[in-house]
């Protein structure tokens, strides 16, 4: 009896003994994660954007356009579809951790040969082979393979969720930038139309002075030469206005006619509370960093899955039901059929397939980790660039405001001197030209400031916050 038992289990013992032939020793990833602390701009606190960061502009038209874009833009729908696909895949992986139960039914008419194993009355006649069986299967997750696979799938789903939020942020920022571009070009067109009217008045004055013998043809030609350039610039601005409207229409998922009546305007002065520094723990509060971090987690779990392939795989299978030839006794107790037992498989010699697979998963982890590092570095660079530009712009605006104040003072003085008969209308108009030039410069700087505030809100993550993925490795 003991000898019989030994003969039965000896193949299993031998297989387990040979399992050591396949090993993953010496196979490890090479990359390391960049440190948030090393890349932080400082450790002081700042005001972070809210989720609906565009409300800071207090513009109902802009808010409505962003709402439409977030609901209709194909990029958002694409990211949502990707998330739904990944979520379904995670559910499928989760289902693999549970027992499988199924029912099988077959009724197969068969003619039995007279020269086979079956004696009469079966031999030479047609009988139905009937089978009704409940089958069950369960995989014991001794090595954590299924758990690791599920964790990997859930991390991939988390990455897809973050990427959806990233798509929301990019679309909202694109709408805001296009809207402020439309406002910029519209405001510049107003100034240019005022400049054109003022230069046409100067031409009229020059013609009158020429007729009165007070000026020569030279002064007249000087008055004329700038007019075509101004008209050309207005035409160019009309083109830019049209292109901005088209961009807005595309972002909200509609045709060009949808934005023809949009009147864009600059908001009143806003306070972005310019940060002196960026805390290390807040750098990760960007959806793209969160997504990259989750993909590293997913790749890491895939390494764990690959390692479990080196261990025995143990399944428990069972079946119970009825089996018979013919229908007369098919469901009788004597036709019961059942069984239960383990199914064990383990690698011994595989030509290096498992080691190659593990090396591949390690390389995928390295790729994911270096992608995370690159995303983190680019995020810090992006934030630093926006802050530097905003600081520089603040100084530029200060200097421009002084220039505009001086130009307005000269213009007011010229008007007073004209009333006193000390200067001609030409002097007044030339002084007004300088004021209009500074107004145009102020509009450019205001548009640049708004563009930078949008960029900064985007760079700071647009209010996205996922503390679970903002941590370091």
TrEMBL record:
GO molecular-function terms, A-Z: efflux transmembrane transporter activity
PROSITE patterns with a match to the protein in the record: PROKAR_LIPOPROTEIN
Entry's Gene Ontology cellular component terms: plasma membrane
Primary localization class, coarse: membrane
Keywords: Lipoprotein, Membrane, Palmitate, Signal, Transmembrane, Transmembrane beta strand
InterPro entries found in the cross-reference section: MdtP/NodT-like (IPR010131), OMP_efflux (IPR003423)
Signal peptide residue numbers: 1-19
Superkingdom classification of source: Bacteria
Membrane topology: Lipid-anchor
Xref: Pfam families: OEP
Entry keyword annotation includes Repeat: no
Cellular compartments annotated: Cell membrane; Membrane
Family to which this protein belongs: Belongs to the outer membrane factor (OMF) (TC 1.B.17) family.
NCBIfam families from the UniProt entry: outer_NodT
Name the record gives this protein: Efflux transporter, outer membrane factor (OMF) lipoprotein, NodT family
Higher taxonomy: Bacteria, Pseudomonadati, Pseudomonadota, Betaproteobacteria, Burkholderiales
């Amino acid at each position: 009896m003991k000898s019989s038992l030994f003969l039965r289990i000896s193949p299993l013992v031998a297989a387990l003994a040979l399992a050591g032939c396949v090993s993953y020793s010496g196979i490890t990833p090479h990359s390391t994660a960049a440190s948030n602390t090393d890349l932080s701009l400082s450790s002081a606190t700042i005001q972070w954007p809210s989720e609906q960061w565009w409300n800071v502009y207090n513009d109902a038209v802009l808010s409505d356009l962003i709402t439409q874009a977030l609901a209709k833009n194909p990029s958002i729908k694409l990211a949502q579809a990707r998330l739904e696909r990944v979520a379904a895949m995670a559910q499928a992986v989760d289902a693999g951790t549970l027992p499988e139960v199924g029912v099988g039914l077959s009724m197969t008419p068969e003619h039995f040969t007279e020269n086979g194993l079956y004696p009469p009355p079966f031999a030479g006649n047609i009988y139905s082979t009937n089978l009704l069986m409940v089958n069950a299967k369960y995989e014991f997750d001794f090595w954590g393979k299924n758990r690791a696979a599920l964790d990997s799938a859930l991390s991939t789903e988390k990455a897809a969720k973050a990427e959806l939020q990233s798509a929301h942020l990019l679309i909202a920022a694109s709408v805001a930038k296009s809207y402020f571009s439309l406002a910029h070009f519209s405001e510049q067109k107003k100034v240019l139309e005022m400049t054109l009217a003022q230069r046409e008045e100067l031409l009229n004055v020059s013609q009158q002075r020429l007729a009165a013998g007070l000026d020569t043809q030279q002064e007249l030609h000087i008055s004329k030469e700038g007019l075509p350039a101004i008209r050309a610039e207005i035409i160019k601005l009309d083109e830019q206005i049209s292109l901005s409207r088209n961009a807005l229409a595309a972002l909200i998922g509609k045709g060009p006619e949808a934005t023809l009546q949009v009147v864009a305007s600059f908001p009143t002065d806003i306070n972005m509370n310019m940060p002196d520094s960026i805390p290390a723990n807040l750098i990760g509060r960007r959806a793209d960093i969160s997504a990259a971090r989750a993909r590293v987690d997913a790749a890491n779990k895939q390494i764990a899955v690959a390692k479990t392939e080196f261990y025995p795989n143990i399944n428990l299978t069972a079946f119970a039901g009825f089996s018979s030839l013919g229908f007369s006794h098919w469901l009788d107790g004597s036709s019961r059929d059942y069984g239960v037992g383990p199914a064990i498989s383990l690698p011994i010699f595989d030509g290096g397939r498992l080691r190659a697979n593990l090396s591949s998963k390690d390389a995928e982890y390295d790729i994911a980790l270096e992608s995370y590092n690159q995303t983190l570095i680019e995020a810090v660079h992006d934030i630093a660039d926006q802050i530097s530009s905003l600081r520089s712009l603040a100084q530029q605006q200060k200097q421009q405001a002084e220039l505009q104040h001086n130009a307005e003072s000269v213009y007011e003085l010229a008007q007073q001197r004209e009333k006193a008969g000390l200067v001609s209308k030409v002097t007044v108009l030339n002084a007004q030209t300088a004021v209009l030039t500074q107004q145009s410069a102020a509009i450019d700087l205001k548009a640049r400031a708004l563009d930078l505030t949008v960029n900064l809100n985007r760079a700071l993550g647009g209010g996205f916050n996922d503390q679970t993925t903002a941590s370091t490795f």
